[in-house]
Structures are given as C-alpha cells and as structure tokens.
Amino acid sequence: TSCQRHPESVVQKPIMKIQYIITASVLVAVTAAKPHHLHRRAHARGPAKRGTIFVPAAVETEIVYWLDDHEISEEEVNLGITNGTLMWGNDGVLSTSTSSPIALPTPPPASGHETQVPKPTPGPTSEKPVDEHKPVVPEFQKPASPPETPPIDPAPSPSQDTPPVQQSGTSSRPWADMVDKDGHCAECDRKFPDGTILCTEFPYGYGALPTAQEGLGGWSGIQDPQYAGADGFDDITTVPKGSCSDGTCCTTGSFCSYGCPNPYLKASFPSIQGRTGQSVGGLYCNKDGFLEMADGKIADTLCVQGSQHMGVKVQNKLSKSVSFCRTDYPGTESMTFPVTVGPGETGFLANPDQQKYFFWQGKKTSAQYYVNKQGVPESEACTWGTPMGGKGNWAPAVFGTSFDDGPASQGFSSIKQNELCKQERLGYDITFVGDGVVSPCRYKSATNQWCEGDTCWEDPDRGCTAGIKHGDLMIVLSDG
C-alpha cells in the first residue's frame, strides 16, 4: 500500500495480501494538533494461501487471489499490474488505487430537487468503524430502507431553458501564475455559481486549477460513495488514475475534487464523511448533471486562503527544482497539489488555521506535503509513485503544518523521514528560519540528522518540529 499517512483523516486504498489486511501509515506530527489521521483505503485480500497439500514426495501450495471478498484470477492480477490499477507495495503486498476493481457507473442525470447524498445500498459493509471518538450523528437507520439524513439545502438546479455556463480559458496554467507576490489569488475570490457548470467540465475561472497528471480531466480525484446514511459514507469508489482525460468520470452522485493555488485550500467538502474514517471532498455532481458546492462548504468560493497569522514559504538554493506535493484532503488524499520551486525561487505553501478548516471526527487537521528529491519532474513527484521509487508517496520526507488559532495562538510545522521509505535520502539540507520561529528545525543531509535548535539526533522516526509565534516560516533548501 502507499506509504502515506495524512494528519487526521482516512481514505480508501484496497490491499491484496496474504491472510490479513494492513493499513500502512506515516505520521507527520504537528505537536498541539497531534495529526494522526489514518488513510484507510478499501481493503482487498490476497494472494491468500488456501492451504498446503501434503503428498508423499512433495509439498504443493495453491495461491488464491482475493479482492473485495471474492476470488480473482492470476490473469486479472497480471492485467491489473500491466494497466497500472494494481501494483506491488513495499512489503510485497499487491495494492490498487481503487476501492473496487472498476468504478461503478452512476445513473444518468434526472430532473427534480435532491439532497447531496446518493441513496444507500441495501446493506452496510461488515467492517467495524474505527474505534475512536466520533461526533454525535443522527440515529442510524436500518440499511433495508434509505436512512434519514440531516436536511441539506443545495442551490436550485437550473431550469431546462437555462444554458450551462460557457467555460473560457480552459488551458492549464502554472500554479504560480494565479498568485501574486503577496500570495493573493484574485480568481479565488469569485463566488462559485452552483448548478450552472456541467459536471463534465472543469470549473476554470474560480481559482481551481487542474491536475493534468491524474488523467481525470483536471480533477485531482473523483469519489462516488455507494452507501450514504446518517452514519456517513461507505463503499466509496475512487475512479482510477487515467480513466477519463476529458473529465467525463465526474458523474451524478460523485464528489469531484480540485486543487487550489498555494497558499489557498479547497473549501468544498460534504458535512458527513466516511463512516469508518474515510475523508471525502470536492464539488458535488447533482442528479441534473451540474456542479455545486458540497453542503459542508466553508465558503461560497472554491478556494479559501490559509492562515493569516502565519505564512509558510519554501526557498530553493539548490541547482535543480524541488517539488513539495500537498495531499488532496479531505478527498482521495493523493499527493497531487504541487509547489515546484526552481533554483533561486521562493514559493508559498498552504497552512490552515486549525479552528477554521476541516475537522476529522471532531479533531483539528493540518496540511501535509511530500518532499521530493531535487530534479524530479513535477508530473512524477506529485502523483502516486512506483514502490521504492523515491518519489510521489515514496518521496524521502513528509512535512506537516498548521496554525493553532485557539488559546495557543501558535503555529506548528514538522518535517520527518517518510517512515515506509527509510532507505531514501533527500540529498540536501533543510532549515527552518524566521523571526517568530521557536527552536528552528533542521535536516543535515551529510550526517542524516534532525535538529531542533542546537540539539541533533539520528532517529529518522522522530523528525523535528518548530513552533511559530508570528510572521512567516521560511523553509530553506540548500546543499549540505
């Protein structure tokens, strides 16, 4: 499975494994918030050893592959590896980026008013919820009948004689072009017009920026919950990478996620989330086939600016470009939102206020970035990577950041070794600097040490964390 664990959330990724299921994780500590959200991706068992048959002269082991509680053939496994929907994980397990072998079709758009919750399937999964405290939710309805959900008041769908908004300027632009030198994005201030843009079109012109490397028509991820109840979503189908370069995979009932230029964050996600901890985010495709803000939105715009108490920037003093790749959260939590800084350049990173952004099961969350080696192309750095390939979710380090805008009134930023990729090294130094930085954090590539202030250690699992009282945190990348 991917070596990803994002602060305080859970997403789906099936795992085929011998005899048991495991969820791999990587923790990015942000002290006060203690981000520890698990990425649960729908599980698949296999290859499972059915048994050992003893005969007088030999021992035979029959290998059986299981996915979603049913047997699949070796031919299907090989085909999955060939077409990229299955891959070998770091510990020898076979994993897939989908929550089922293929994305399930959704019904065609229909007229009428609706809530932003697809109908539940007649039966929940047998998996037990994560044993953690959850916010109070309405009483669970029996799965035999559609559960009652909190009333949602989506924007009215356009009448049949209302033409869809005609999109313009639909060519992809560099992320940095959207933000001025002060970190302001003018397009991001535009209110999103619910119910006027077709789900098959990416919503250009409102601050959202496409992620071309995912092959989903600009969407960073598409999630289609097959179950929705008062207790949350489940059986969440994630459309595989490369499924629809024209964006037609964003269909009725789906949540279609998008990127925002740093230092901005996605503002649209549903009020209910995965009932076993999965996170879901993006614009909702209603039954009329039009996009609208999800009912849990925190603004009327697609993107919201990060903390105004504390800014985060990265400065590149190396000879090659470096990509910091933010996870799509809440959503598929793939590391698809890039900040790529060339030699001599400085770029912004998004840094949420804990009290104002997304809460996972009542807990505050932070932004997480995968930190790649210098010289790795952005298209390879900011997407799911090849196991042990040293990029993407296998990048050497992870960085987490947020500002506690509660009583603490302090930011926390942390960087550490990617726990499931301990053999990978960044190959350059990282130093936290800034007037308001307490116990500056450093990584020394020559000795592979992490430091806070004048104290250093070689424990890669510990990493280092800095407190930021005010102003900007500058992450400086330099040769050792």
UniProtKB/TrEMBL annotation:
Principal subcellular localization: secreted
Highest taxon listed in the record's lineage: Eukaryota
Positions of transmembrane segments: none
Biased composition (Polar residues): 158-173
Alphabetic keyword roster: Carbohydrate metabolism, Cell wall, Cell wall biogenesis/degradation, Glycosidase, Hydrolase, Polysaccharide degradation, Secreted, Signal
Record flagged with keyword Secreted: yes
Entry's localization field: Secreted, Cell wall
Ranges of Pro residues composition bias in the record: 144-157
InterPro entries the record matches: Beta-Glucosidase_SUN, SUN
GO biological process: fungal-type cell wall organization; polysaccharide catabolic process
Chain residue ranges for the region called Disordered: 96-178
One Pfam entry name: SUN
GO molecular function ontology, one term from the record: hydrolase activity, acting on glycosyl bonds
GO cellular component, one term: fungal-type cell wall
Family affiliation: Belongs to the SUN family.
Protein name, entry field: Glycoside hydrolase family 132 protein
Originating species: Alternaria burnsii
